[in-house]
Automatic annotation (TrEMBL):
PANTHER family given in the database record: SULFOTRANSFERASE SULT (PTHR11783)
Name of the molecule in the record: Sulfotransferase
The entry's keywords: Cytoplasm, Transferase
Keyword Signal carried by entry: no
InterPro entries in the record: P-loop_NTPase, Sulfotransferase_dom
Subcellular location: Cytoplasm
GO MF: sulfotransferase activity
Top-rank taxon: Eukaryota
Organism, scientific name: Callorhinchus milii
GO-annotated cellular components: cytoplasm
Pfam family, one: Sulfotransfer_1
Gene3D superfamilies: P-loop containing nucleotide triphosphate hydrolases
Length: 293
């Protein structure tokens, strides 16, 4: 199996191959006009990538979709996979990329390369409620053959709550960026808000990026980044990705794209356990989530 093991980097659970690029990632030199999209895995990264890319190209679909999403917006914290030339490392892609760059990361706040903060880079952070995030991550770990074996849903949920999954604890991730949002140029968004009113949230991104776009352009971006449109678009649905890594027959990358799917997975007891864990982990933050809209 190609599935990776896990290791700890600065105390955070990470995929084992990340340990080998960590020193290079940490020394990464950001430019002041880099835009970082930061998320916990499965919080809406790909969705946000497409929105940002369309905004950057003034709504021009041909420009923004010229290549698959993972090649347009490098993933800072993913190493090269040796025998797959069509899957270069994020660091490799970034070396060749013209500014202004949009970069994707799942790193928790404390592992973000310091140059992003030194350069006062803009960061768009997207958070998704923990219950839906766990369900989405479970299915992703089934279909992504590089991720550790998820086991049963019940086994997986236990690991998720312990932070024993790649990129560590969901609680720490969402909380730390929330607590830091006013010390840096961080736009903190919620998946649930984006589902509720995508236009409103897209306008927040447009303003954050200091762009001025016509109403029709905004309407077009809303349409192009709907779940169904992105699901049918090979430049954003990850079907161009090597099938040896993503097996969409097990579970498609564009799976459901909804709020509240957790209700189809959590038993009453699992829900109780999650809620009490949540209370413990989140008692010192003003951060709040909606688990339905
Ligand atoms: P589900 O597994 O719940 O369907 P990421 O891009 O961070 O890996 O997140 C993937 C999750 O976002 C998946 O959730 C995927 O379906 C959902 N998603 C992707 N594009 C979306 C869109 N345009 N609208 C809503 N959800 C989207």
């Amino acid at each position: 199996s190609m599935r990776c093991g896990m290791t700890r980097v600065e105390g955070v659970c990470m995929l084992e191959p990340f340990a080998h690029i960590w020193s290079r990632v940490c020394a990464f030199q950001a430019f002041s006009d880099d835009l970082l999209i930061a998320t916990y895995p499965k919080a809406g990264t790909t969705w946000t990538q497409e929105i940002v890319d369309l905004i950057n190209n003034d709504g021009d679909v041909a420009l923004s979709q010229r290549a698959p999403t993972h090649l347009r917006i490098p993933f800072l914290d993913i190493p090269k996979i040796a025998d797959l030339p069509q899957f270069p490392s994020g660091l490799e892609l970034l070396e060749k990329m013209a500014s202004p760059r949009t970069i994707k990361t799942h790193l928790p706040f404390q592992l973000i390369p310091p140059s992003f903060w030194d350069q006062n880079c803009k960061v768009i952070y997207v958070a998704r409620n923990g219950k839906d995030n766990a369900v989405s991550y479970f299915h992703f770990d089934r279909m992504n053959l590089l991720q550790p074996e998820p086991g049963t849903w019940s086994q997986y949920l236990t690991r998720f709550m312990e932070g024993n999954v790649p990129w560590g604890s969901w609680f720490d991730h969402v909380k730390r960026f929330w607590d830091e949002r006013e010390n840096h140029r961080i736009l903190y968004l919620f998946y649930e808000d984006m589902k509720e009113d995508p236009r409103r949230e897209i306008l927040k991104i447009v303003e954050f990026m200091d762009k001025k776009l016509d109403d029709e352009v905004i309407d077009n971006i809303v349409d192009r980044t709907s779940f169904n449109t992105m699901k049918d678009n090979k430049m954003s649905n990850y079907t161009t990705f090597p099938a040896t890594i993503f097996n969409h027959e097990i579970s498609p990358f564009m799976r459901k794209g909804t709020v509240g799917d957790w209700k189809n997975y959590f038993t009453i007891n699992q829900n109780k356990l999650f809620d009490s864990r949540y209370k413990l982990e989140m008692e010192n933050t003003s951060l709040q989530f909606r688990t339905e809209i």
